[in-house]
Structure formats: structure tokens, C-alpha cells
Design brief:
Elements lengths: L2 H13 L3 H6 L5 E6 L7 H13 L9 E6 L7 H11 L3 E5 L2 H10 L5 E5 L3 H4 L12 E5 L6 H9 L8 E5 L6 H15 L3 E5 L3 H14 L4 E3 L3 H5 L1 H10 L4 E2 L3 H5 L3
Parallel strand pairs: 1-2, 1-3, 3-4, 4-5, 6-7, 6-8, 8-9
């Protein structure tokens, strides 16, 4: 997914804002930006979001207002943050890179336009009815990062001793975890690769996971795509280096962040 693709979708949603919405917001329409993660380390994403909207003709504080809500990696806060936007009757809810936020927004409103970007199949997640006809009040982009999970497992398998038990790190609170593990399991079964799963849904659990891997003498680590792990990428790379555990990440940025 490119920023332009996401902003094009958001601009399309803006064009469809109902007249009633403008009547209820006589000053400027509000774009509700929602993410389950933390703003720490994501300032450049928010800046790119504003820049993309500006390129589409929507300038923050000039003809539109962007309001940000971050759940700070506390997944149970997301529904309440969505409820704020619904009560405020924002013109559109943007959930870039957050399946949790997109699902919560869909559950909360059938009238406010919702635009998402996710790394897994939005049909499997239950966000849309189909890829070519999303339906209802929601649309977005899938950038297929979860689909590359089996490929990452395959690449690691070429580097480790035959029969070695790879460790897969997942966030158990993420809505994409079950689907990601099923895809990995299918890929592992096809080549006879074994893997074990460790859970981490906060900083402390991430720290605790690495001594556990070292105790198991884990030969390699696969980190499943998740906004929590993206926001903690420096921590993950630092710990993997400290414990000398070869790891494969979702993106190049994850690997470079601690260098």
C-alpha cells in the first residue's frame, strides 16, 4: 500500500460526506484518526497522513480538522475511542494500519464512512464482504504483509539446522493472530517445519519472551505482523541482538531501527 492509495480512498470518502454531516458541523468537518497503538515512534506516519490529505485538498485546520486517538496499546480502550467519534459524528473515521480500530469502528457505526489499511485479508477479518465490492460504509487497502509470513518462515528455514524448532512471537490480543498462525501452520506442515509460539501483548511480556527463547535455545525467531511489534521495533531488535537470536521482521524499517 502507498500513502497515495490510502489518501485517494479517504478523499473518496470525503467526497461522499452527507449534507447532514456538514449541517451538524458548520465550521469544518472532522476526520477521526484512530489507532490501537502509541503515538511514540509514529510521528512521521501522522505527518505523512496530514501531507497526503493536504495533497488531496484537505488541509488540517484550514478546511478540515484531524483529531487523533491513540489507545496506547491497550486494546480494550479502542471501543470507547470509537464511541467518542461516533458521538461527535465525525465526517469519516480513518484506521490506517490498525485492524483492531477498523473492526471496532465497523461494529460501532453503519453510517459514518470508514477507511482502513491492514496487513491481512480484510474479507477473512470480516471487515468487508469482498475485495471488489466492500459494501456498507467501509473500504480500504490490504498491503499483504501477513501473507508473507509463510515466506519469512521459509527464508529462516534455509538458515537453521534441519529439524530445529523455530519460535514465533505473536500478540494474542490482535484480531489477526489466529489467521496468521493458521497460515504459518499450513506452510510449516507442508515442509515438515516445527515451531513453537510465544505470546507478548505489552513491553514486559516482550522482555520476558527473550530469556524464554534463550532458555529453549531457539535457533530463530519469526515476528508476526502487529502494530504493537512495529511500535516496539527498537526494543525487539535490541533484545534479539542481545540474546543472539536470528530474527526475521515484517519490514526493512523494523530491522534498521536499532542500527
Amino acid at each position: 500500500m502507498t500513502r497515495r492509495e490510502f489518501i485517494t480512498l479517504l478523499g473518496g470518502a470525503a467526497a461522499a460526506w452527507p449534507l447532514a454531516s456538514h449541517a451538524q458541523q458548520p465550521t469544518m468537518p472532522v476526520v477521526g484518526f484512530l489507532h490501537e497503538g502509541s503515538s511514540d515512534g509514529r510521528a512521521h506516519f501522522a505527518a505523512a497522513f496530514r501531507e497526503g490529505l493536504s495533497e488531496a485538498g484537505f488541509v488540517d485546520r484550514r478546511n478540515v480538522v484531524i483529531e487523533y486517538r491513540w489507545a496506547q496499546d491497550q486494546f480494550d480502550r479502542v471501543p470507547a475511542l470509537v464511541a467518542e467519534f461516533v458521538q461527535r459524528q465525525v465526517a469519516v473515521i480513518a484506521a490506517p494500519g490498525s485492524a483492531t480500530a477498523a473492526l471496532a469502528a465497523k461494529a460501532a457505526t453503519s453510517t459514518i464512512p470508514i477507511v482502513f489499511s491492514v496487513g491481512s485479508d480484510p474479507v477473512k477479518l470480516g471487515l468487508v464482504d469482498s475485495l471488489n465490492r466492500p459494501g456498507a460504509n467501509i473500504t480500504g487497502v490490504n498491503y499483504f504483509s501477513q501473507d508473507l509470513g509463510p515466506k519469512r518462515l521459509g527464508l529462516l528455514r534455509e538458515l537453521i539446522p534441519a529439524g530445529a524448532d523455530v519460535v514465533v512471537l505473536v500478540n494474542p490480543k490482535s484480531p489477526i493472530t489466529d489467521s496468521a498462525l493458521k497460515d504459518l501452520q499450513a506452510a510449516a506442515d507442508a515442509v515438515g517445519q516445527q515451531f513453537s509460539v510465544l505470546h507478548a501483548s505489552n513491553n514486559q511480556e516482550i522482555y520476558a519472551a527473550f530469556p524464554a527463547m534463550a532458555q529453549r535455545r531457539a535457533p530463530a525467531l519469526v515476528i508476526v505482523t502487529d502494530p504493537l511489534f512495529t511500535s516496539r521495533r527498537v526494543q525487539l531488535v535490541t533484545l534479539a541482538t542481545r540474546y543472539a537470536i536470528p530474527a526475521i521482521y515484517t519490514s526493512r524499517n523494523s530491522r534498521k531501527s536499532a542500527v
